[in-house]
Design a protein that fits this description.
It is a single chain. This protein has 158 residues and is mainly α. The model has no long low-confidence stretch (mean pLDDT 86). α2 packs across α4 and α6 packs antiparallel against α7. Helices cover 66% and strands 7% of the residues. The chain folds into 2 domains: 74 residues, Arc Repressor Mutant, subunit A, CATH 1.10.10.10; 72 residues. β2 and β3 form a beta hairpin. It is built from 8 helices and 3 strands. The protein has a 3-stranded antiparallel sheet.
């Protein structure tokens, strides 16, 4: 029996880490200089050149990375692989910033530095950011066919 793999395991696969390494570089690209692929392979702990080149060719064939104008770069298709990660990471930072802002507003109100109506503006910012995350969540949510949705309704009735 084969070992099952989940999404967490896939996120830590060498192929995903290879794509993420390039995605994490400034402008999602790295210079295509001699020896770059060997250095990447070693840094990511590939056991053999064959495994590395198999993953590299897969990513190129899937249009996730390309060599263009002397750079290896992640395509829009490749960037979509990290949409959930980027959204979650961005939301975490926004929550930290909003927490700091709440503390600042509290201090500002306590010492009467800020007007009371500024809380309404801050609430509007919270609503806007929350709405943005709802839209992004819908965009990255797996899509089910009409047939699958109907089946789900049927299964829930039983």
């Amino acid at each position: 029996m084969s070992k099952t793999r989940g999404i967490s395991a896939d996120m830590q696969s060498p192929r995903t880490r290879l794509l993420f390494l390039i995605y994490s570089a400034p402008n999602s690209r790295i210079k295509a200089a001699p020896g770059t692929k060997s250095r990447i392979s070693a840094a990511l702990g590939y056991k053999s050149d064959g495994h590395f080149h198999y993953d590299w060719n897969y990513l190129v064939g899937a249009n996730m990375i390309e060599e263009k104008q002397g750079y290896y770069q992640v395509t829009d298709t490749g960037k979509k692989e990290f949409a959930l990660y980027s959204t979650q990471s961005m939301s975490n930072w926004i929550m930290v910033v909003m927490g700091i802002a709440l503390i600042s507003f509290t201090v500002g109100l306590h010492f009467e530095i800020l007007p009371v109506w500024s809380i309404a503006a801050f609430g509007g910012a919270f609503i806007s950011v929350g709405g943005l995350f709802l839209l992004l969540g819908k965009k990255t949510k797996p899509k089910l066919s009409a047939e699958a949705k109907e089946l789900l309704k049927e299964l829930n009735r039983r």
